[in-house]
Design a protein that fits this description.
Order of helices and strands: HEEHEHHEEHHHH
Radius of gyration: 17 Å
Shape: globular
Number of strands: 5
Largest sheet: 5 strands, mixed
Structural class: alpha/beta
Low-confidence stretches: none
Helix content: 40-55%
Strand content: 15-25%
Number of helices: 8
Length: 203
């Protein structure tokens, strides 16, 4: 059954303050994985919340500012070095844990996008496709993606040959060609196949 879009029904079934959690950047070859936790005011839910991937760049940017202005927000990340050390799944959980810890007030319940959640003390539920079903998770997906995208644009200024302002670290043809030609940077995830291969070739 198709969902018309995210709503507040999942939050309404929970007691107390509810935080939605989502991440951005599990698949890229470079940059951190970023997670966000958002506690929405049920009396002030921004219009147009949805899975960040379904929104235009301009709409995400606009909603990012609106969310930060009317909700409680926490942001966490895990670095490429942490991703390489503990693997991308555990690094994603680490970023999520840091995001919830960064909230100005602890939530009573956490809704996590996906089918697995970190091992933490919070009462929580996982929701597959949650960024298209829960407004809190949708808000978190927007905050996480905009935060990470902006970070990758800033990294592009010091590493302009990899096209990070456009590909955001994902394995596009431009990015892969640059890795093959120029090698890897400290911002690359060396445990990821294409990066590992480039490192072995240049060694």
């Amino acid at each position: 059954m198709k969902h018309a879009g995210p709503d507040y029904s999942h939050e309404a079934r929970c007691l107390g303050l509810v935080a939605g959690v989502d991440e951005a950047g599990r698949g890229p070859l470079a940059g951190p994985v970023v997670a966000a936790a958002v506690i929405l005011d049920p009396a002030c839910i921004p219009d147009g919340l949805n899975d960040s991937k379904k929104l235009t760049h301009a709409r995400r940017e606009a909603l990012f500012d609106i969310i930060l202005g009317c909700a409680r927000v926490g942001i966490g990340e895990a670095s490429p070095e942490e991703i390489d050390r503990i693997n991308i799944l555990q690094a994603t959980f680490l970023a999520m844990t840091r995001a919830v810890a960064a909230l100005p007030i602890a939530p009573d319940h956490v809704l996590v996008d996906g089918n697995r959640a970190p091992r933490w003390s919070y009462r929580s539920d996982t929701i597959v496709g949650g960024d298209a079903r829960s407004v809190s998770i949708a808000a978190a997906s927007i905050v996480a993606k905009v935060t990470r995208d902006r970070f990758m644009v800033r990294l592009h200024e010091t590493h302009p040959d990899y096209g990070w302002h456009e590909n955001k670290g994902y394995p596009t043809r431009t990015h892969l060609e640059a890795v093959s030609r120029l090698g890897v940077t400290v911002h690359h995830r060396r445990s990821f196949g294409p990066v590992r291969h480039a490192s072995e070739v240049s060694a």
